[in-house]
Design brief:
The protein is an alpha+beta fold and 471 residues long. It is built from nine helices and twelve strands. Strands 2-1-5-4-3 form a five-stranded antiparallel sheet. It has a five-stranded mixed sheet with strand order 7-9-10-12-11, with helices on one face. The chain has a two-stranded antiparallel ribbon with strand order 6-8. A hairpin with a 4-residue loop joins strand 1 and strand 2.
Length: 471
């Protein structure tokens, strides 16, 4: 297809070249003949016309003809009796228009081109006719046409071969990418596409595709790990449920059905919380995937539906604290009840999703209640152009080198925060995902106490324009 289009283009170019050359050469012949006619007319006007009339090279015949058709003078070899042109063509030539003439009329085997220029005084008008042969012009055009006819196929073959080599060289990296993509499978292992050496668009495409493969591989690893962890976490309560029910069924006479039902209910609630957390994480992951890689920082992915008073959210969570803290709510890791204190501002508006922020507060407070010994403090106050939520407990705390790992899914740092006393290790992961999607931040640190025991959780959320003092 490309070779055919190239041949068509070269053919049209050759036709245009020959046509343009023909017109250029013909114009040059006309200009030369017209100039010679003007020179002779100047001699006529000056009354110094020699006889015979001088003619330059390439000129066939020069005649000076009057209005009666008489030949006043002629060049050597020119007819002195019969003019070159009859009255009609003579009038056209006198007006400056070239006239074609068969050379056989004056004994020349060639086509002639005659041009005329007025001369002489007004009382005796005359016309200088110059006839030039077109044999040299035709010979030159034939040479060019022969060169085009012979050279065009050679040029076409050369260009087609060059195009084939160039296209093959340019598409070779693309073919390598295609072969590499065919070899990549989902059976595991880290596979990458070959990256061309040349720093061109194909190189950048290969780099981009490899980055995409890295993201897909990382997403696959996270998904497989998530599924494995979820299956592992669900296996424990299911095993406990099955064990209790099997024992009660095999020994119905000795079974204490109220106790068995209570144990089954605890495990069912544990499974329910785990399933709820898994659904929340799945929805958050779907929100990130739908937002695209441009929102990789996770800011603004959650649909922020309006202004929420964070103080009201905290108070509502603390009022129904048993719904979120589980069976051990309010007793903590110590021997006595845990005292919960709320301090700070009376109102702290933020822009966000009320249900998501409620889950943030509930998870942070629930985590503090699980491990506190005597005291949990919840403080809400404006800070640094936003709103700061601080939850402090006096429990065992988390080592500084483990504080980032606790945000990973299903992560536990020690036996004190294990499966029996703690949850499935998803609470802080959910908190961080929601906070980041609201454009905020979360930080774990030591509490401001002399003993240094416990944990301080600081959540910062951007405030509304009203909270920032702007209209």
């Amino acid at each position: 297809m490309s070779t055919g289009l190239l041949a068509l283009g070269l053919g049209l170019g050759a036709l245009l070249l020959v046509g343009a050359l023909d017109r250029t050469l013909l114009r040059a012949v006309d200009d030369s003949a017209r100039q010679q006619a003007r020179d002779v007319a100047a001699l006529v006007d000056a009354g110094r016309l020699p006889d015979p009339v001088p003619a330059s090279g390439g000129t066939a015949v020069v005649q000076v003809v009057d209005t009666h058709g008489r030949v006043r003078a002629a060049s050597p070899g020119g007819d002195r009796l019969v003019p070159l042109l009859e009255p009609g063509p003579l009038a056209r030539a006198r007006r400056g228009r070239p006239v074609g003439l068969d050379g056989a009329r004056i004994g020349i085997v060639d086509r002639l081109r005659v041009l005329g220029v007025p001369a002489g005084p007004a009382r005796d008008p005359q016309t200088v006719l110059v006839a030039v042969s077109l044999v040299d012009l035709r010979r030159s055009l034939r040479v060019v046409e022969l060169a085009v006819v012979l050279g065009l196929p050679v040029l076409l073959a050369g260009l087609a071969g060059l195009s084939w080599v160039t296209a093959g060289s340019a598409l070779r990296p693309v073919a390598a990418l295609r072969i590499g993509a065919e070899e990549i499978s989902g059976t595991g292992g880290s596979r990458r596409l070959p990256v061309p050496v040349a720093a061109d668009e194909v190189h950048r495409l290969a780099v981009t595709l490899n980055r995409m493969l890295e993201r897909l591989e990382a997403a696959g690893v996270r998904q497989r790990g998530f599924v494995a962890d979820a299956a592992h976490e669900l296996r424990s309560p299911l095993a406990s449920l099955r064990t209790q029910l099997e024992v009660a069924l095999r020994h119905p006479a000795d079974a204490e059905w109220p106790t068995t039902a209570a144990g089954v209910l605890v495990e069912a609630e544990r499974m329910s919380r785990l399933v709820d957390d898994l659904l929340v994480l799945a929805r958050l992951d779907d929100a990130v995937a739908a937002a695209g890689p441009a929102l990789g920082e996770l800011v603004g992915v959650v649909d922020l539906v309006g202004v929420v008073d964070l103080v009201g959210v905290v108070d509502a969570v603390l009022a129904g604290i048993g719904d979120f803290a589980g069976a051990g709510a309010g007793t903590g890791a110590g021997t006595g009840p845990v005292r919960v204190e709320r301090t700070g501002a009376a109102r702290a508006p933020v822009r966000g999703d009320a249900d998501a922020l409620r889950r943030v507060v509930a998870n942070v407070v629930d985590n503090a209640l699980r491990y506190a010994r005597r005291q949990v403090t919840v403080d809400v106050a404006p800070a640094a152009g936003g709103v700061r939520l601080v939850v402090v407990d006096d429990g065992p705390g988390i080592p500084a080198d483990q504080r980032q790992r606790v945000f990973e899914r299903f992560a536990r740092v020690d036996e004190a925060r294990g499966r029996d006393t703690g949850g499935a290790g998803l609470g802080l992961s959910i908190v961080r995902e929601i906070v980041l999607r609201h454009g905020g931040s979360i930080e774990l640190s030591d509490p401001d106490t002399r003993g240094g025991a416990g944990l301080r959780v600081t959540v910062w959320l951007p405030a509304t324009r009203t909270a920032r003092g702007r209209p």
